[in-house]
Design goal:
Shape: elongated
Order of helices and strands: HHHHHHHHHH
Number of helices: 10
Radius of gyration: 18 Å
Length: about 200
């Protein structure tokens, strides 16, 4: 579901319409923003009729939620891949940082602009279900970090909660700065800071 690449040619056009629509929405929502991207832009880039969009999604809001869900699943896959290389709980915590850095390293059409989930959430009104999708993603990342910390600090539940929140704030702050600066170096610095904190536990 990444926003990498350019418009597809014939082989891509053989993909199901839903996949093409999601891929086009991912590119345009990330590069141009949710509000600025109209349905016509998405259907033209996907190479499908407007009716095909409404056969697959009930509305633009439904498409936005599908995009957010797909982006969450994409991050989970990156994290899972990193976790497979982890040797211990410390590495498990750092896998979350590595997964965000992997996302930042994608070849985005107009460069890296930070967390696509938060970018979209910033455009959505309070109470929108899309914002709930983003909140659940961020809460899950913090829970994953906490799960590894529980193994490092089995008798210190309060410290686990505090440190998980601390590390998730470090990660989110680094992601925001990396997006503003257009490269992933802040994420690498945040990973090094997290590693140093873990080594002092």
């Amino acid at each position: 579901m990444s926003e990498t690449g350019t418009r597809t040619t014939d082989p891509g056009r053989r993909r199901p319409a839903r996949e093409r629509l999601l891929a086009a929405a991912a590119r345009r929502f990330y590069a141009d923003g949710v509000t600025a991207t109209g349905i016509d832009t998405i259907t033209t880039e996907a190479g499908v009729a407007k009716m095909s969009l409404y056969n697959n999604f009930s509305s633009k809001s439904d498409l936005v939620r599908a995009y957010l869900d797909a982006r969450h699943e994409e991050w989970i896959a990156l994290y899972t891949s990193r976790l497979e290389q982890a040797q211990n709980p410390r590495d498990g915590v750092l896998a979350a940082f590595d997964a965000y850095a992997d996302h930042a390293a994608f070849a985005y059409e107009r460069g890296f602009r930070g967390c696509g989930l938060l970018n979209a959430a910033a455009e959505l009104p309070a109470g929108d279900e899309g914002r709930s999708v983003v909140r659940r993603h961020k809460e899950q990342v913090e829970r994953l970090i906490a799960g590894h910390l529980e193994k490092l600090l089995p008798e210190r539940p309060e410290d686990v909660r505090t440190m998980a929140e601390h590390l998730s704030f470090l990660l989110e702050g680094a992601m925001a700065r990396a997006g503003l600066e257009g490269d992933g170096s802040r994420l690498r610095h945040a990973r090094a800071m997290a590693a140093a904190l873990l080594d002092r536990l």
